[in-house]
Amino acid sequence: MDLQDRITESLAGNLDAFNQIVREYQSLVYNQAYRVIGEPDAAADATQEAFISAYKKLHTYRGGSFKSWLLRIVSNACYDEFRRRKRQPVVPLIPKNDEGEDVESAPWLEDSTENPEEFAQRKELSKAIQSCLDRLDIEFKTVVVLVDIQGFDYASAAAAVDSPVGTIKSRLARARKNLQDCLRGFKELFPGSLRHLGEV
Predict the structure, then answer these.
(1) Domain 1-95's class?
(2) Is the pLDDT of residue 107 over 80?
(3) Burial (Cβ within 10 Å: 0-12, 13-18, ≥19) of residue 55
(4) What is the mean pLDDT of residues 154-175?
(5) Which CATH code of 3.50.50.60, 3.30.300.30, 1.10.10.10, 3.40.50.300 fits the domain covering 104-200?
(6) How far, in Å, CA of 50 to CA of 26, rounded?
(7) Bridge partners for 102 per DSSP
């Protein structure tokens, strides 16, 4: 069953078909939400809200890039989360695993092929990148995550946030400059082949 068939079945009330869509796109949606929001629990909440909204709005999908359509919904869910936080500020908690121990990195960052030093370096670099991302306003953060982390082209990113391509390019240029300035303070965390990026 291809994507269009699953959409058609979902519109007919087949929850199994929609669950197949969720399984196919949940990593993409969660990664977008996590990088924009910066907290695993909040990203999981935004992901859940995005899929609930997608199910309710599935009848509005008119073809084209389903990824862009879906990421527009999760981007809106992230905006809603930021608006909620402004109304009711929260103190972020350190996530815990099943044993109640503190977890400092997201599960998908773990790689059993790395030695402990490489893992620690990558974990610190990921934290530094997320720290710099978190300093961006949400509209700039969303665009840089779509293009530079998720790998979307300008047109797809524009469709995902419902903005002109020119706006995407402008926001991306500004976001990249701010990230570059921020990451200069963490250049010792970059592998030798990339360390020059912090010196530009």
Answers:
(1) mainly alpha
(2) no
(3) middle
(4) 92
(5) 1.10.10.10
(6) 10
(7) 96
Q: For the stretch 147-178, what's the b/e string if a residue is b when 16 or more beta carbons lie within 10 angstroms of its beta carbon?
A: bbebebebebbbbbbebeeeebeebbeebeeb
Percent of the chain scored above 90 by pLDDT? 38
Q: Which residues of 83-106 are buried (b: 16+ CB within 10 A; e: fewer)?
A: eeeeeeeeeeeeeeeeeeeeeebb
CB 70 within 8 A of CB 31: no
Q: 11: burial class by Cβ within 10 Å (0-12, 13-18, 19+)?
A: middle
Q: Count how many Cα atoms sit within 13 Å of the Cα of residue 186 in the half-sphere of its side chain.
A: 20
The answer to whether the pTM exceeds 0.70 is: no
pLDDT surpassing 80 at residue 56? yes
